[in-house]
């Protein structure tokens, strides 16, 4: 008897997650942005053609499609958790206007941006593991070789993501938030 897991495996084996779903996502987002901001006028046909071309170009780059495949579970999970948090707060009696007001404040906005940025960094680390090979060569497969430019880039990224540097960046980020909270003007 077929079940949902079998259906997901069949669509995965047919390449839906590698081509069809990224194509549809990029097409829908591009079409939505073009329809909202109207940089090419009111013509829906032009927006459809531009959106299709952008989506085809995107899926033609394997690494870009792989990045989107690795990024979407993080973003979907974050949005699902955010949705349930909003539902919980609404069940507790918090009004929709209070939730919308919080998201429009800098603290709420930057929290959402921070989670999305962290998800993006994790997805990049999964898609481009060669950056990890410079700092940890034992992780590299036996047949892995890098060009001089790739080695230089990987070394620079390894330096940037060294625990000492990351700790210092997080410390400065916390200091910046503290300074902002102290010196900002209160809204009347």
What would your notes on this structure say?
Helix 2 (16-37) packs antiparallel against helix 3 (44-60), helix 2 (16-37) packs across helix 4 (62-91) and helix 4 (62-91) runs antiparallel to helix 6 (106-127). This protein has a domain at 1-60. The chain is globular, with a radius of gyration of 22 Å. It is mainly alpha-helical and 188 residues long. The protein starts with a helix and ends in a 5-residue tail after the last helix. 80% of the residues lie in helices and 0% in strands.
The average pLDDT score comes to 81
Q: From the alpha carbons, calculate the radius of gyration and give it in angstroms.
A: 22 Å
Helical region count?
Answer: 9
Q: Which structural category do the helix and sheet elements fall into?
A: mainly alpha
Low-confidence stretches: none
| N- to C-terminal distance | 63 Å
Strand-residue proportion: under 5%
* Helical percentage: over 70%
> Largest beta sheet, briefly?
none
Number of strands: 0
| Basic shape | globular
What pattern of helices and strands is seen along the backbone? HHHHHHHHH
List the keywords:
mainly alpha; 9 helices; globular
Indicate the topology.
Blueprint: H1 4-13, H2 16-37, H3 44-60, H4 62-91, H5 96-104, H6 106-127, H7 130-135, H8 148-160, H9 163-183
């Amino acid at each position: 008897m077929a079940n949902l897991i079998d259906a997901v495996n069949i669509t995965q084996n047919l390449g839906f997650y590698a081509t069809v779903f990224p194509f549809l996502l990029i097409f829908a987002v591009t079409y939505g942005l073009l329809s909202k901001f109207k940089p090419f006028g009111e013509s829906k046909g032009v927006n459809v053609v531009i959106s299709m071309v952008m989506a085809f170009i995107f899926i033609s780059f394997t690494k870009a499609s792989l990045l989107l495949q690795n990024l979407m579970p993080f973003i979907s999970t974050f949005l699902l958790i955010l949705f349930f948090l909003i539902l919980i707060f609404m069940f507790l009696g918090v009004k929709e206007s209070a939730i919308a007001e919080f998201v429009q404040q800098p603290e709420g906005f930057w929290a959402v941006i921070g989670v999305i940025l962290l998800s993006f960094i994790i997805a990049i680390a999964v898609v481009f593991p060669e950056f990890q090979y410079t700092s940890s060569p034992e992780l590299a497969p036996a047949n892995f070789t890098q060009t001089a430019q790739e080695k230089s880039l990987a070394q620079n990224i390894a330096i940037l993501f060294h625990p000492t540097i990351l700790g210092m960046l997080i410390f400065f980020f916390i200091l910046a938030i503290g300074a902002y909270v102290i010196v900002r003007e209160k809204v009347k």
